Amino acid sequence: MAAKSVTYVGTGGAPDRAITGVGFQPTFMMVGLGLQSCRGTNWTASRLHNVTVGADTAVLVSIDTDGFTVTLALNALGTTYYAVCFGGDNDVEAGEYTGDATDNREITTTMDPEMVWVLHDDGAVATGLIHTVNMGVDVTMNFYGNLAAAGVADYIQTFGTGKFTVGATMNALNKKYGWVAFRASAAHVVGSYAGDGTNPRTFTVNTPANIEYAFTKAYTSGAVGAASRVKDHISGQSVPHPNNVQAGAILDFSTSESYTTHASLRTNSASHSYDRWTYS
């Protein structure tokens, strides 16, 4: 799987602005000060991962052959924006389904997923739900704040051969759900760790190229929101979801195959255990 981090400075004004130079057509991407605006191919709209109402009102307009197009909401004059794009191969797939109110619903994919994210337009629960192979059956975490910090049931339930299964909570009648699935690959490393309180703490991952994006979130009781970092963030800077850019979470990408974290609740508290993943 190819991942590409992108940075651009807003120019302000209308019309919509095309951001190019990614090098491939993204299958899935996130953009914004908090990487909060998301879109996948075959989605009818972009969605937000960090609020309870997932619809993203025409902020991320489209995915294009060499990048993406944004409105003024993601192009304010002089503001620096960050994005990360995934695609360029068969290791990531995106799609959309309409809820039918059934439980244990199977969503077909062309791969055997290692990780799935689902973003939705259902205002009843927070959007941006995540399930990985390291989680137990019927356990899901979310991007936003403390909700589902210890995992919740009846959202993304299981993985299977060419499919994943969602529960009724992730399948409300006539609601739209956008999903993205990642298969196991050398460029996509999924793992977990117990925090030890050291500062800084370095993790080495076996990736074939420079790390473009890293994400970590505690899944034990009392944990706070997640943290992520793209390659273009300055040293010591990352995104503490659901907020904007801030120092002191994922500190740096030290070499092509390692990154360092801070002894904070978000990334390496001795009181918590964490899931993590990196992309190159």
Descriptive account of the structure:
- The protein is mostly beta strands.
- Helices cover 0% and strands 45% of the residues.
- The chain contains no helices and 25 strands.
- The strands form 7 sheets. Strands 1-8-3-4-5 form a 5-stranded antiparallel sheet, with no helix packed on it.
- The chain is globular.
- It starts with a strand and ends with a strand.
Please state roughly what percent of the residues sit in beta strands, choosing from under 5%, 5-15%, 15-25%, 25-35%, 35-45% or over 45%. Answer: over 45%
Helices and strands, in order, run as EEEEEEEEEEEEEEEEEEEEEEEEE
**Overall shape:** globular
Spans with pLDDT under 50 lasting ≥5 residues?
A: 146-150, 241-247
Major sheet: order of its strands? 1-8-3-4-5
Number of strands: 25
The first-to-last residue Cα distance is 8 Å
Fraction in helix = under 10%
Report mean pLDDT, rounded to a whole number: 78
| Biggest sheet descriptor | 5 strands, antiparallel
- The number of helical segments is 0
**Secondary structure category:** mainly beta
Using only CA atoms, what is the Rg?
17 Å
Q: Helices, strands, pairings?
A:
Blueprint: E1 2-9, E2 17-20, E3 26-32, E4 37-40, E5 47-48, E6 60-64, E7 67-70, E8 80-87, E9 92-98, E10 105-108, E11 113-120, E12 129-132, E13 141-142, E14 156-160, E15 163-166, E16 176-183, E17 188-194, E18 201-204, E19 213-218, E20 227-230, E21 237-238, E22 246-247, E23 250-255, E24 258-261, E25 273-279
Antiparallel strand pairs: 1-8, 2-7, 3-4, 3-8, 4-5, 6-7, 9-16, 10-15, 11-12, 11-16, 12-13, 14-15, 17-25, 18-24, 19-20, 19-25, 21-22, 23-24
